[in-house]
Specification:
Blueprint lengths: L7 E4 L2 E4 L5 H52 L1 H6 L5
Antiparallel strand pairs: 1-2
Length: about 90
Amino acid sequence: MSETKENIVTLDGEDFQESEFTSEQLEAKTHIQTLQKRIADYEYEINELLPSLRYYKAKLISSLKATSQDILKNDPEIKEVQGEKK
């Protein structure tokens, strides 16, 4: 004789026997499990993408600051305003 282990589903701290679920309840349980897995997958993907996003933002900011500094150094009108001779 083989024993079958009853699937117990815990929701809001309460245990329910899956064998007593209606087909609608089973469908809802399946959707919940699928959505939880998809959300976990997206969270993992986001955690992988965030460092790349931060890197490219920092790279752009650094480049823009360098470009601004070059413009300030090489623009004769700005030099004149700052009191330097042409």
